[in-house]
Amino acid sequence: MIVNHQGEILALKVTAGNVDDREPVHELVKELTGSLYGDKGYLSQELAEDLAQTDITFITKKRRNMKAHALAGGIR
Fold it and tell me: Fewest Cβ atoms nearer than 10 Å: which of 25, 37, 50, 51?
């Protein structure tokens, strides 16, 4: 589910429990630009780079065991 800063639903997709949460992201953000915030479950350098190609800044917290120099984009 993707919501805006007012909590309004912009995009929604229900998937089976065995589907990676990151899988439907590209479809959900097809018509969007700006910043996308996700929890650590969405952490993926490849996803961040793909979203950057479509003018979306992906922001999420890094995992404790990640080194800062290995990060790019909005991963913190």
Answer: 37
User: Would you list the domain boundaries of the chain?
Assistant: 2-75
Closest CA relative to residue 24, chosen from 8, 10, 35, 12: 12
27-57: per-residue pLDDT in tens? 999 999 999 999 888 888 899 999 999 999 9
Asked if 47 and 24 touch (Cβ cutoff 8 Å), the reply is no
- In angstroms, rounded to a whole number, what is the distance separating the alpha carbons of residues 14 and 32? 19
Average model confidence (pLDDT) across the chain = 85
SS3 per residue for the chain: CEECCCCCEEECCCCCCCCCCCCCHHHHCCCCCEEEECCHHHCCHHHHHHHHCCCEEEEECCCCCCCHHHCCCEEC
